[in-house]
Amino acid sequence: MDIQNFFRQRLNRLLALLVLPALLLLSLSGCAPRREETVDFRILTSFYPMYILTLNIAQGIEGVEVVNMAGQQTGCLHDYQLQNRDMKNLETADAFIVNGAGMESFLDKVLQQLPDLPIVTASEGIELIAAGEEHGHQHGDEEHEHEEEANPHVWVSITNCIQQVETVTEALMELDPAHSSQYRENGTAYIAKLSSLRSEMHRELDELPNREIVTFHEAFPYFAEEFDLHIVEVVNREPDSQPSARELADTIRLIRDTGVTAVFAEPQYSESAARIISDESGATLYFLDPVVTGEDDADSYLNAMKHNLEVLKTALA
After folding, report:
1. Between 20 and 30 A from 167 (CA), which of 9, 31, 91, 119?
2. Res 35 pLDDT > 90
3. Is the model's pLDDT at 137 over the cut of 50?
4. What is the rounded CA–CA span in Å between residue 57 and residue 191?
5. Residue 290: pLDDT above 90?
6. Mean pLDDT in the chain?
7. Which of 118, 108, 102, 106 is nearest to 171 (CA)?
């Protein structure tokens, strides 16, 4: 019996030496059984501003996924061409959130190929500024007949962004009623943050003495209207183009004649032309962010606008 007990103990020890490392290796390799997260509702957004907006509305809701189609670093969708991967993403989406107002020129193609895809237009109901106009609006039937001629950068105004949050929240509540109360709670919380920031910006900017600015992209008319700034000149209406020598000279002359002290470029685009104008005119060059690119962070719009506030306080004082 003593010999049998001896061999039995040795066998048990040997098995322990073999089994325990195997179990440990299995655990460390990530092969241990885990609960799979299922996606009940998949939201696709057209580009970065719509992604951040929707990310806040759907944040923390189990079973809801938000995917950004154009990617975080694409910028505005000027001349964006749909890729095969985009169409695959659209085919598996339960909702497609777009800015509208002519920003997504590819929408007709999407509607033709996926007529049943629910599309939420975040700019719906917002009064649009005509493209090429720093002040003034389109009204009535003209707005709908020439929507492609509208300035689509509505989200750069915090008031418009709030309205977009309301529009998207209501749409998601209708499309995904299982999570409607969570959408409403998140949307309300985000609107409260945006409203607080808007009030802070008005307190800081409304009394600044200088109101005239020059910009390099047609992204800021809605922002300027909200904070009573006067855009004297937009140098580049299309961000990927470069002004001619005559346009540069005309802008430099205009700045000298009007006494504009601040020129605003955007961090997403080349600053070479802006630097020339600043050097030759004597106006100081600053950067304003239209929030068309950024980090995968729900607070990125708020953070960018806070940074814009600090820039404007310095530039317009």
Report:
1. 91
2. no
3. no
4. 10
5. yes
6. 86
7. 118
| 236-244, Cβ contacts within 8 angstroms, sequence gap of 24 or more | 236/273, 237/131, 237/132, 238/78, 239/75, 239/76, 239/78, 239/266, 239/268, 239/269, 240/78, 240/269, 242/270, 242/272, 242/273, 243/273
Closest of 42, 56, 266 to residue 156, by C-alpha? 266
C-beta of residue 76 within 8 angstroms of C-beta of residue 47: yes
Backbone phi, psi, residue 221, to 5° = -60, -40
Give kind and range of the element (H or E) at residue 43.
strand 41-45
Q: What is the pLDDT of residue 141?
A: 41
DSSP 211: -
Tokens 């004649």 sit at which residue? 257
Q: Which two tokens stand for residue 244?
A: 């001619």
Alpha helices in the chain (DSSP H): 2-28, 48-58, 84-91, 107-113, 140-145, 158-175, 180-205, 221-226, 245-258, 272-281, 300-316
Decide: helix, strand or coil at residue 103: coil
C-alpha span between 182 and 61 (Å, rounded): 7
Distance (Å, whole) CA 38 – CA 62: 8
For the chain, the residue count is: 317
Q: What is the DSSP letter of 37?
A: P
Q: Is 158 left (phi over 0), alpha (psi -120 to 50) or beta?
A: alpha
214 beta partners: 233, 263
Quote the pTM value. Answer: 0.83
Alpha-carbon distance of 101 to 107, in angstroms, equals 11
Contact (Cβ atoms closer than 8 angstroms) between residue 274 and residue 249: no
